[in-house]
């Protein structure tokens, strides 16, 4: 038996079929006709693999995929802001899944460019090409990552699906994470109820109440992400993904963020690395490492493009990039001067407050996307003013260095 067709005679082929067919069914059920967005992207990607030289695959894949995704993002904006029409939830789900598919497609194209993965469709190896097609399609349309991620590398996906070294039972880890999701959703529900009963009036309420209310709203948005990431992590763990071999019983190998470690960040740069971890790593590999000039701003700029180019995205991501950049300079300047323990503690506390204020503005601007989020921030003008003052101080310190 030839080595390239052994996969068809093993049980791994059934795993690939189960994962890919399950993903297709899930896409059709949840997105309806808009599931074609994903199928078209997958088909075009395979065509590019078949006809484009491996050295240029990443450029072609990146350009075609981002143009296709941008078209649908702009179409949503056209319907919302120009035609004032409501957009189908199925369309939103399809575009959101298309963004995740962009991650997987460009991840494979970078693997091909860096020769970490080899895929060939030459006439002399048609069988091998067909053999590579099923794992690749399964990876792109896997039901475990179709709606929520996190990003898993293609080589890791193939290693697990072929069952070379099966992981231990994930039931205990999945159960524990589901309990965490329930607790997180319970806290979020109580926080939402409390905020509905205590909506501040800008003309009568104290400034601090308004600031805390907006901070609570941003926290509600972020907690929704943490719950979503945990559920996605549970699905992947149940399928056998995410186990760390170096750690006994550790199923956090595929995680987009932990509530406590991320929210405890006292620096914007730490928060940026811990928030949506697999996406942050993908952006670093795709943009940051490859850019010779202004890599940080280019990375956040591409993230802005990838997220949809809404007005709130411009404000949120550019603010995020500026604060991360200045955070590097400030920490480099101030941290060596913190000789005593109480100074380090004070620096950490003030840094945490500053990080929460900036993250609040970013979350409100990005989540509400349009002018409504910016108006909400302008109502709590003291919060906005304090952040501007902090930004000015950061810039002054940077200039004086």
TrEMBL record:
<feature type="transmembrane region" description="Helical">
    <location>
        <begin position="206"/>
        <end position="223"/>
    </location>
</feature>
<feature type="transmembrane region" description="Helical">
    <location>
        <begin position="304"/>
        <end position="324"/>
    </location>
</feature>
<keyword id="KW-0812">Transmembrane</keyword>
<feature type="transmembrane region" description="Helical">
    <location>
        <begin position="131"/>
        <end position="151"/>
    </location>
</feature>
<feature type="transmembrane region" description="Helical">
    <location>
        <begin position="345"/>
        <end position="366"/>
    </location>
</feature>
<keyword id="KW-0256">Endoplasmic reticulum</keyword>
<dbReference type="GO" id="GO:0005789">
    <property type="term" value="C:endoplasmic reticulum membrane"/>
</dbReference>
<feature type="transmembrane region" description="Helical">
    <location>
        <begin position="171"/>
        <end position="194"/>
    </location>
</feature>
<dbReference type="Pfam" id="PF03062">
    <property type="entry name" value="MBOAT"/>
</dbReference>
<feature type="transmembrane region" description="Helical">
    <location>
        <begin position="381"/>
        <end position="400"/>
    </location>
</feature>
<keyword id="KW-0808">Transferase</keyword>
<keyword id="KW-1133">Transmembrane helix</keyword>
<protein>
    <submittedName>
        <fullName>Membrane bound O-acyltransferase domain containing 4</fullName>
    </submittedName>
</protein>
<keyword id="KW-0012">Acyltransferase</keyword>
<feature type="transmembrane region" description="Helical">
    <location>
        <begin position="16"/>
        <end position="49"/>
    </location>
</feature>
<dbReference type="InterPro" id="IPR049941">
    <property type="entry name" value="LPLAT_7/PORCN-like"/>
</dbReference>
<dbReference type="InterPro" id="IPR004299">
    <property type="entry name" value="MBOAT_fam"/>
</dbReference>
<keyword id="KW-0472">Membrane</keyword>
<dbReference type="GO" id="GO:0016412">
    <property type="term" value="F:serine O-acyltransferase activity"/>
</dbReference>
<dbReference type="GO" id="GO:0030258">
    <property type="term" value="P:lipid modification"/>
</dbReference>
């Amino acid at each position: 038996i030839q080595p390239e067709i052994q996969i068809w005679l093993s049980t791994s082929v059934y795993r690939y079929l189960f994962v890919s067919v399950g993903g297709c069914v899930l896409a059709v059920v949840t997105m309806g006709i808009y599931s074609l967005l994903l199928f078209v992207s997958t088909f075009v990607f395979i065509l590019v693999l078949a006809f484009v030289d491996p050295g240029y695959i990443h450029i072609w894949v990146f350009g075609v995929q981002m143009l296709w995704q941008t078209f649908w993002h702009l179409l949503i904006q056209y319907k919302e802001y120009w035609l004032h029409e409501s957009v189908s939830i199925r369309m939103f789900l399809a575009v959101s899944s298309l963004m995740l598919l962009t991650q997987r497609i460009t991840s494979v194209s970078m693997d091909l460019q860096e020769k970490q993965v080899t895929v060939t469709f030459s006439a002399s190896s048609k069988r091998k090409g067909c053999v590579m097609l099923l794992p690749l399609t399964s990876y792109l349309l896997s039901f475990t990552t179709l709606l929520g991620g996190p990003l898993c590398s293609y080589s890791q996906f193939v290693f697990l699906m072929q069952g070379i070294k099966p992981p231990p039972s994930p039931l205990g880890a999945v159960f524990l994470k589901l309990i965490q999701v329930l607790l997180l959703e319970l806290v979020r529900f109580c926080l939402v109820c409390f905020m509905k009963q205590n909506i501040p009036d800008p003309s009568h309420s104290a400034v601090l109440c308004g600031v805390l209310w907006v901070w609570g709203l941003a926290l509600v948005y972020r907690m929704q992400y943490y719950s979503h990431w945990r559920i996605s992590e549970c699905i992947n763990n149940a399928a056998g993904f995410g186990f760390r071999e170096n750690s006994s019983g550790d199923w956090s190998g595929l995680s987009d963020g932990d509530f406590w470690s991320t929210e405890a960040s006292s620096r914007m740069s730490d928060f940026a690395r811990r928030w949506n971890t697999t996406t942050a790593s993908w952006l670093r590999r795709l943009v940051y490492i490859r850019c010779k000039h202004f890599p940080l701003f280019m990375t956040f700029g591409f993230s802005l493009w990838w997220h949809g180019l809404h007005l709130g995205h411009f404000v949120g991501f550019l603010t995020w990039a500026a604060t991360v950049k200045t955070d590097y300079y400030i920490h480099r300047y101030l941290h060596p001067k913190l000789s005593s323990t109480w100074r380090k503690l004070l620096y950490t506390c003030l840094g945490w407050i500053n990080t929460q204020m900036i993250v609040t503005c970013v979350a409100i601007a990005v989540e509400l996307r349009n002018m409504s989020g910016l108006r909400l921030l302008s109502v709590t003008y003291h919060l906005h003013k304090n952040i501007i003052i902090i930004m000015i101080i950061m810039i002054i310190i940077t200039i004086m260095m």
